[in-house]
Amino acid sequence: MSEIIQTNYLLIGYSVSSWFAAQAIREEDDSGRILAITEDDKAYSRPLLSYVLGNRSKDIAYFGEVVSHNPIEVWWGSSVINLDGVERWAELSDGRKVEFERALIATGAIPVFPPIRGASGEGIFTFTHIDDLERMSAYIHKENIENILVLGGGFIGLKTCEALIELGLNIQLVELAPRLLINMTDEKSSRHLEKALIKEGVDIILEDTVEHFEREGQKLRGCVLKSGRSISCRMAVVAIGVRPNVAWLKGSGVQVDRGILVNRFQETSCPGVFAAGDVTETMNMVTGERSVTAIWPEAVIQGKIAGKNMAGKRDVYPGSLPLNAVEVGETALISAGLVNPPGDDDCEILVCESEGSYQKLVLKENRIVGLVFVKNIEKAGIYIHLLRQRISIDAFRDKLLQPDFGIISLPSNFRKHMVEGAGIEV
Amino acid sequence: MKKIRIQEEFCIGCRLCEINCLVKHSYSGKIIKAFREESPRALPRIRVEEEGYLSFALQCRHCEDAPCVENCMSGAMQRDRETGTVFCDEERCVGCWMCIMSCPLGVIKREQKTRRIASKCDLCGGEGEPVCVAQCPNEALLYE
Ligand SMILES: Cc1cc2nc3c(=O)[nH]c(=O)nc-3n(C[C@H](O)[C@H](O)[C@H](O)COP(=O)(O)OP(=O)(O)OC[C@H]3O[C@@H](n4cnc5c(N)ncnc54)[C@H](O)[C@@H]3O)c2cc1C
Hints:
The structure holds 2 protein chains of 2 kinds. By secondary structure, chain A is α/β, with parallel strands linked by helices. Helices cover 21% and strands 29% of the residues of chain A. Chain A is built from 8 helices and 25 strands. Chain A has helices at residues 16-28, 48-53, 130-142, 155-166, 187-199, 296-310, 380-388, 412-420; strands at residues 4-12, 34-37, 73-75, 80-84, 89-92, 97-105, 109-111, 124-125, 147-151, 170-175, 203-206, 210-216, 219-225, 230-232, 236-238, 242-244, 260-261, 273-275, 280-283, 290-291, 323-328, 331-337, 348-354, 357-364, 367-374. In chain A, strands 1, 2, 3, 4, 5, 6 and 18 form a 7-stranded mixed sheet that branches. A 5-stranded parallel sheet of chain A has the order 8-15-9-10-11. Chain A has a 5-stranded antiparallel sheet with strand order 21-22-25-24-23. Chain A is globular. The model of chain A has no long low-confidence stretch (mean pLDDT 94). By secondary structure, chain B is of the alpha+beta class. Chain B folds into 2 domains: 1-59 and 127-144, Alpha-Beta Plaits; 63-120, Alpha-Beta Plaits (2-Layer Sandwich), CATH 3.30.70. Chain B has helices at 16-24, 31-36, 67-70, 98-102, 131-134, and strands at 4-6, 47-51, 54-58, 77-79, 86-88, 109-112, 116-119, 141-143. Chains A and B meet through α6, β21, β22 and α7 of A and β2, β3 and α4 of B. The structure holds flavin-adenine dinucleotide. Flavin-adenine dinucleotide sits between chains A (12-18, 37-40, 46-47, 49-50, 79-80, 106-109, 127-128, 156, 159, 245, 248, 277-279, 294-297, 299) and B (73, 96, 98). Flavin-adenine dinucleotide (FAD) sits between chains A (12-18, 37-40, 46-47, 49-50, 79-80, 106-109, 127-128, 156, 159, 245, 248, 277-279, 294-297, 299) and B (73, 96, 98).
């Protein structure tokens, strides 16, 4: 009989979501045992991966200690292979068994890798893990890489481009959609981004994808696109998306669709078992539809709410909000919520354009439901706050997107609450 | 923790706070140099907003549950444990603008230094009264 460990709280995966959950638990419960099990050898910030690759940041570490008298225990380099959400135990890869009162599943997302002929072998990478960073850096140096193919013009693809630009590589960016960041841009904002990338020497190929990769022995030599165009490159990064890391939950009793399904308290179908971050599927606060919103701010909010509820308090999740920020050269872009409303939706669009800058707001029933800003991004947070708080814009509609729009444009009681309130709820 | 209190009824919209803030956060700390010689010019970390007769100067509120700190994925945006000030460690900032999109007051800027970083009110480093308060001619800003 192998060892059985007991804990009040079990955190599965120890990254952003779990870290915020641990803090929230400690705020309510200073004595319960919190045990975190994680496959990683250390905690690091995933979004920093691209900045470390591009030499803009040296340090990948991020999380400090949770400040409390009773610290949390982390077992590094250890994974959970089985969960029984009903009987409340988890089995580790080394055979140990952990019994828990409450658990948080925060195992993040894993990259999607399409079955493309010629994809297996050297030179092709996905980029979501610290090991990928080390392998990619080493490969670029060892093989003296000058040309690189990035497949996927989504968020991670663009972040990868940002880094590769800093390394001075020649990049070919291939995207199946007619524009970059498909869900978070419209045509105009994408064109701004494309222009900036082209200025940095990136060759952008839209509405196309890799048909197969070509090899010379083990080594990558290039690829042929669906359009028939052939590209020569000795290295490629596949960044066509991520999906919740849920395969290991088979037989756990925890209900899963694309991601783990949770209620408003971040609790799964198994009472006492919670989930947060990239592994979940949550309700979009704008559209009301269920989706996976695999971004840092969601990991933070969901982790906090899960932690609070795990510790016996009640806190309700407001729904997810897709958010993005990228910057290429001088061109920065922020987008949030619903950027491209479906045609039959009675949304109103406001646009403000001047040289190099583009701002678009999507309004519905007197509320902001989405935006994309290029270049003039600094006030984006005000609009995003109004979106989250569902503030009616009726009283200041004519000020929206004006250059002097600011806190002063808002109704005075709301403004005062924002400026004087103890903490600002976002 | 001491905070800057805004008294909008006293603000005359003179923008001396903006000027003094810029100078304080310039390389030289000297007004003529800061405006004439330094390139790129430092940015004021305070913003005077005006509408008709109403005006006020707004800077970071150093929120209790600061969304910019929580959403900072490099650990650059942080709270000083002793003073409570929310500040950006420029060495660690990578310029991802997660803070900009999470600031409900829109008071974080992109600033060009050796690279672009997030720039915001740091309460003048916590060394006593911030310059915007000290130099306000009409007590429209208080530090208390
Ligand atoms: C290159 C890159 C750039 C990004 N940039 C941004 C950005 O700029 N802005 C933004 O908002 N978001 C960005 N993201 C997304 C962001 O990193 C994620 O949303 C966030 O990390 C999600 O946190 P999480 O806690 O849900 O999961 P993760 O951070 O994915 O952590 C999951 C944890 O679970 C562990 N684990 C997995 N399976 C098991 C198991 N069976 N047993 C034990 N442990 C397990 C892993 O080891 C890991 O510690 C980026 C992501 C990548 C990859």
